């Protein structure tokens, strides 16, 4: 992949940070783009079990917010709403859909949660979209990415493909971390002071599936607009559940216990600052321009 031109607006990218991988920035739209690679062996420092405890509460709360919004647009349909989730991970979104009487199929490259998927009768196909693609006649009512879009290398190719798989009034939902959020700013500040650990962690450069891009609200909308989508709404989502922040930090095997405890303490102290800063996670709703 070329790292000299911005994949969103076509302006030049310039080297911004030298971390475990390089991060480039577009001077025009602000996109942050990395030259990281997806590790197909799926080997990483991530401890999935403790990560789940830390994440589940905040994820389910955010999913409830997204479902409410989705039902506002699609809730009056004579048939059940039907969707496709790209990158289902543990399958919590599919479970939430079931509870809300929404049909949703998932595509997931990893099999580490396969047992959980089977146990909960979740409809998941293993592989990479669009290589595996459960086609639906007339297309899906929605296609959703939950913390997945930032891991995609070829964002333009992906968004083009979505058009073929959505119905005429279908919605694309992209829920992802923001480059303008508190955590990115804090990690960037630490990097400038000589501590690069946080920024490497934020980009997930130690994990098998690192971040390829960090978007802000402007360039996220711009990317989808360029492919014929308009913004329907942008929701602000929660980043942290403060009661389980310790488990989430401990999920990183590379982190010592003392450091993890200190970080938990620091984050708890910073809670008022974090909650009043620029949001770290947003969910974008797009539909096809007519
Ligand atoms: Zn750009």
Characterization of this structure:
By secondary structure, the protein is α/β, with parallel strands linked by helices. It has a single domain, classed as Rossmann fold. Helix content is 36%, strand content 23%. The strands form two sheets. It has a seven-stranded mixed sheet with strand order 6-5-4-7-8-11-10, with helices on both faces. A four-stranded antiparallel sheet has the order 1-2-3-9, with no helix packed on it. Strand 5, helix 3 and strand 6 form a beta-alpha-beta unit. Helix 1 crosses helix 2. The longest helix has 27 residues. The mean pLDDT is 89. Zinc ion binds next to loops.
Q: Spans with pLDDT under 50 lasting ≥5 residues?
A: none
Distinct compounds present: zinc ion
Helix content: 25-40%
Strand content: 15-25%
What's the arrangement of strands in the largest beta sheet?
6-5-4-7-8-11-10
- Radius of gyration computed on alpha carbons: 19 Å
CATH C-level category: Alpha Beta
Summarize the main sheet: 7 strands, mixed
Q: Which sequence of SSEs, written as H and E, runs from N to C?
A: EEEHEHEHEEHEHHEHEHHHE
For the record, the CATH architecture stands as 3-Layer(aba) Sandwich
Q: Domains counted in the coordinates: how many? A: 1
**Class per helix and strand makeup:** alpha/beta
Distance between the termini: 32 Å
Number of strands: 11
Kindly state the mean pLDDT as a whole number?
A: 89
CATH topology term: Rossmann fold
């Amino acid at each position: 992949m070329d790292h000299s031109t911005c994949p969103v607006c076509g302006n030049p990218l310039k080297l911004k940070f030298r971390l475990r991988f390089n991060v480039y920035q577009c001077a025009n739209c602000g996109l942050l783009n990395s030259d990281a690679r997806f590790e197909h062996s799926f080997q990483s420092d991530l401890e999935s079990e403790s990560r789940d405890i830390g994440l589940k509460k905040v994820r389910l709360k955010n999913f409830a917010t997204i479902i409410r919004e989705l039902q506002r647009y699609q809730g009056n349909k004579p048939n059940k709403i039907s969707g496709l989730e790209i990158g289902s991970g543990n399958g919590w979104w599919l479970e939430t859909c079931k509870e809300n009487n929404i049909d949703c199929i998932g595509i997931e490259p990893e099999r580490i949660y396969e047992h959980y998927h089977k146990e909960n009768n979740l409809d998941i196909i293993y592989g990479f979209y669009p290589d595996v693609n459960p086609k639906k006649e007339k297309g899906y009512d929605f296609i959703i990415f939950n913390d997945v879009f930032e891991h995609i290398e070829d964002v333009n190719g992906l968004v083009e493909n979505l058009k073929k798989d959505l119905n005429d009034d279908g919605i694309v939902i992209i829920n992802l971390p923001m480059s303008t959020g508190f955590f990115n700013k804090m990690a960037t500040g630490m990097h400038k002071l000589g501590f690069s650990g946080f920024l490497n962690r934020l980009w997930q450069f130690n994990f098998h599936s690192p971040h390829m891009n960090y978007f802000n609200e402007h360039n996220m909308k711009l990317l989808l607009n360029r492919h014929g989508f308009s913004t329907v709404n942008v929701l602000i989502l929660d980043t942290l559940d403060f009661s389980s922040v310790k488990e989430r930090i401990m999920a990183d095997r590379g982190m010592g216990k003392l450091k993890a405890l200190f970080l938990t303490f620091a984050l708890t102290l910073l809670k008022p600052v974090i909650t009043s800063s620029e949001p770290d996670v947003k969910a974008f709703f797009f539909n096809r321009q007519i």
